[in-house]
User: What shape does this take?
Amino acid sequence: MLVFPKGKKIILFDGICNLCESSVLFVIKHDKKDIFRFVPLQSDLGKEIIKHIGLHSKHIDSVILYEPGISYFCKSAAAIEIAKDLGGFFHLGTIFKIIPNGLRNLLYDYIAKNRYSWYGKKDSCMIPTDEIKSKFLK
Assistant: This one.
């Protein structure tokens, strides 16, 4: 049985993608309310969570925001929800909700498809520094 930290939202991300790693570090820096925890999609826990919420792991290569026991969001919807939870100036990102999800995801998928060639990738998942290790679930 999976046990999740109370009151935290989990961001599942591509742990070998440089763009995704930069995005995770950005969220950590701006997560003033300590809302988020992080799990690489490629990790055993990431695979367990994907299975737990009923998604097929071989079709998942994007960000997933999971609020345990409540809901989950994928792709552009996840990005918008994360921006909303960061608050402040970032809350303005919710304006993109006026664009239909299908159109938003076309752009998201284009970026996702090209992220390795544009930003590169690693051979293995990022290893968090001691300063941010507590933000990552094992």
In short: The CA atoms of residues 35 and 112 lie 25 Å apart. The mean pLDDT is 91. Residues 101-119 form the longest helix (19 residues).
